[in-house]
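We emphasize that the prediction below concerns an isolated chain of 517 residues; any contacts that depend on oligomerization or on bound cofactors are therefore not represented. The input was used exactly as deposited, without trimming of termini.
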Amino acid sequence: MAQTFEEITKGVVNRFLQNILFIDDKAFQSDNKENEFDAGQISSAFAKNGKLCTIFAPSSECDLCQCSSLFSKADAIVLDWYLDLTSSKESVDDEKDAEEDEPRGFYTKYLIEEIVADAKNEKFKIIVVYTGETDLRGITQEIYRYIAQYGDFKQGDCCVYSSNVMIVVRAKYNGEEQFKHLEDLKDKVIKYENLPDFITNEFSIHVNGLLSIFALLSISIIRENTSRILNVYSPELDSAYLGHKMVLPNPEDAKELLIKLFGESITDLISSSCIDTQDWLSLWIKDRYKQPKTIKVTDNKSIQVSQECIGKIFLAHFDNFEEYIKAILKVSNKEAKIIYKNAALLLDENADSVKTANLLFARLTHHKNVFLPQRENPYLTLGTILYSSTTDMYYLCIQQRCDSLRIDGIRRFLFLPLVESGGETHVVVTNEKQLQIAKNSYEIKTIKFEADKDKRYVCSKHIKNMGKDTFVFTSIHDEVFEWVLELKDLHAQRILNSYSANLSRVGLDESEWLRQL
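Result of the prediction step, given as a token string:
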């Protein structure tokens, strides 16, 4: 039976989801009827689905301190709205006494706030408020008001969400008569046995994309092959690794090698898993292209593109894309060239969102630092881009790595200025800043820096600039340069090779007739 892209996504998410965290103070109270929670039935429901669930029943405010470490390990979090806990001297928050006297929602809001504050705009989190209360929309409104300060949150029907956090409010099942007079809330009731599928479906909605499910499946493959990875990186190799580190002129290089080796091992593991992204693509097109789309090629020309056309273009193999486009879409040579340069427009009529997506993908392909903010102090080497607020200029370091490491004293570093892109774009710094390399030989800039005596390279210094974490390099002449990013090695090397080739140009007088021939 043919699958849809939605089903593929759910399958990948189901494989990824392993650890579900439940926090409910009534979890192990068998005689409790109000807000009842049966830990045994919950465990059984998730076990049948091949998932682990941790059930934590806090009894006091002090117990909530244990939740932080659990949040970071959980793939999804389920909270009860009514946590009736005993007070302690150290309150979880400095709220008014009136709120503490009414525990409905007080502690749950505190936990949600902690999760959201930690997630910021970086971590994806899904939270289910699973309650025996009846005022589901009132609870949703209260959560929204409480966390709106932490980002661009929106409120939906029994849900609060941002770009990376999803909070849904659902009711525990309490018999067929439940919500008898509130018919519109009946679909918000979830039985224990339906919780695993519900969490999978909610998670799938927010990762319903080609790159997202590729990332999730890759993480699942790494998880499932942990024992194989540990077998490759066994303790038997310790003596060889330490011996290698011992004889290096700069022992810190051993860590760089280890990171590189591990990254290559993960690449090999995922490559050998034969993920069928081509099949995903055909299903993605069927899912997104249900109706023909009108694509604006030029100011005066728009074309209708059907699912069949898109399938032929993106799933076929051809030698000349422009000629193929002309034949399929019946466009001119000029229009085919425009489509070639903006192929993503065939998939999205919104030119602004296409441009944003192209810029983000470009950064992913040539920025080495995709997980920001930077955790360790960067050092100066080939591919480092610096910014000078004094000159309002960006500079790309083209000093080879062998001349950037294991150095002592003062060293002259070579930089190419990056200028506003008038035509070509070589470096996407941010979505708003695209720059090109100043290739003229006379534009090269040299700056002297002093290497760290112990580390034997030019290391940046961490500072706070307007409340933002920043790394800066200071030259021997007290010129301050802010670290911006580091290009991937091969991308930086290609720029250097291009510049070197430009330096090798030969100018000579010869017969003009012969030169033009």
